[in-house]
Amino acid sequence: MLPWRRSKFVLAEKEGEGKAKSLAPGLGYASLLAGLLRCRPDLFPEAPLERLGSVFRRRRRTVELNGEAPTYTVRYLGNAATLQAKGEGCTDEAVGKIWAKSGGGGGGTKMRLTLGPHGIRLAPCERGARRPAHAYPLHRITHCGADGRHPRLFAWVCRHQAKNKAVALRCHAALAPGAEAAGAMALLLRQAAAAALAFRSAQGARRLRLDAELREALREAPGRCLPYAVIQGAVRSAKETLSSQFVEGCRGVVQRLTLQEHKMVWNRTTHLWNDCEKIIHQRTNATPFDLVPPEDGGSAVSVRVMKPLEAAELSLETVYEKFHPSVQSFTDVIGHYISGERPKGIQETEQMLKVGTTLTGVGELVLDNDTIKLQPPKQGMRYYLSSLDFDALLRKQESNVRLWKILTVVFGFATCAMLLFLLRKQYRHRREKRRLKQMQDEFRQAQGRLPRETNAEGAEALKNACVICLSDPKSCVFLECGHVCACHECYRALPEPKKCPICRQPISRVVPLYNS
User: Fold this and answer.
1) Are 305 and 253 in contact (CB under 8 A)?
2) HEC states along 252-287?
3) Which string of DSSP letters, residue by residue, matches 59-96?
4) Quick one: 189 exposed, middle or buried, by C-beta within 10 A (0-12, 13-18, 19+)?
5) What gap in Å lies between CA 176 and CA 94, rounded to an integer?
6) What is the pLDDT along the chain (516 residues), one digit of tens a residue?
7) Of 477, 483, 473, 485, which Cα lies nearest the Cα of 516?
8) Distance between CA atoms of 403 and 191, rounded to whole angstroms?
């Protein structure tokens, strides 16, 4: 049996009551969520992507997703069969085959790769191309990331299933413009999913009360387990409690002691002293505890909290805090100025989860014999133990989702602005290049016409030129010899006594010559 058969997992709730906004015909967010909850868990260790498709299904229905999805121009190299759905090194063998088949990344088809809540889309760059667009839905992607041996290679594993046929795992590879772009494709999808899934998973949790009906609900649930549920109650120690080391009479179930160093560090760039904090020691102690109804501490219905230190939003109250300033001598001060680090002191802090604190737990509820346990979910969802109520916790996660949406829009506009700037620069460069080419053609044409005009007029001008300067036309007649051979300026420059430059006879007088 394949590990992602639908019969292996049970959904925490129904797929939703309304019709979800769809990304494509037949592909809705509710269907994405349902498919992902049934498929292989823990798609990514850092930020699972199983339920990202349904994060935008909120009160507002007019949300445009295509405009915000980042798009990269890549060269699609192909795909190959693989046996591993996820994990480190699951794409090494398949990527090696694709790389060799494409001639070391030299082949492939130039396409546009779009990442978003819908998954991965590949579309040809040229309009009217024969190669059709391909969509890889999010609920079928089991792994993606940049290849370690080829940093520019972005690979992903997708489950392909034809009608009435078995599931086949295939690894796809695309050559990104650079190593940073390949890493950004995986990182952008993981970071966006981390914030989105935190809100969506908490929103889809089932809210329960600490009463007698809780045990009956777990007995009727498949496998005596609710995959994701919300419970609220007061903290009660199951064994001995932890006593505060500094505050008398303060007892709790989780204790965290922290020593934090405060110092000033010289910044060589800004030439300023900046505050710096560093945790030099931290110790956390925990004892088993239960959640009981706040109004009745001795109720028989209690929920044992498992692995509380793995929970996000673990609310610890600061019960003791003291700052110990450092004592420095004159030589120490000089040494600190030379080294660029000035210690200010050490802050000692004690935080505790007190007995009686009201906590909201979001996780997996399991009935083990007669003990109800709240433990981290097994489907990649986040585990919460917070002093906030459930509505406040939802609002906090929603603000994180809104922040990621704003960042997506801002980066989308920045990308468009950069693209327009590059296109404008390229257009101006082409226009200037075209203008220079036109000027060169006109200059060549002018150079070709000049010798012809010079040859036609040069013979006539040479006959009428002054024999002395060979530039100005002849403009005077020398008497008594009668020669017309010089211009007026050259006549004035002749030495005394002035003689004709042709026959060397003395010049008695000069008559101006006018050509009409």
Assistant:
1) no
2) EEEEEEEEEEEEEEEECCCCEEEEEEEEEEEEEEEC
3) S------TTTS-EEEEEEEEEEE-S-SSSTTTTHHHHH
4) buried
5) 18
6) 333 333 333 333 333 334 344 444 444 444 444 454 444 444 434 434 434 444 444 444 333 333 456 888 888 888 998 888 888 888 888 888 898 888 887 888 888 888 876 778 888 887 766 666 788 887 788 888 888 888 888 888 888 876 666 778 889 999 888 888 888 887 776 665 554 555 455 455 567 777 777 888 888 888 888 888 888 888 888 888 899 988 888 999 999 999 999 999 988 888 888 989 999 999 999 999 988 887 755 556 888 998 888 888 788 889 999 999 988 888 888 888 888 888 899 999 999 998 888 888 888 888 888 888 898 887 667 888 888 887 887 788 777 777 778 888 888 899 999 999 999 999 999 999 999 999 888 888 887 776 666 665 555 666 788 888 888 888 888 888 888 888 888 888 888 888 898 898 988 888 888 776
7) 473
8) 12
What's the predicted TM-score (pTM) here?
0.43
The strand pairing partners of 486, in sequence order, are 476
Q: How many residues does the chain have?
A: 516
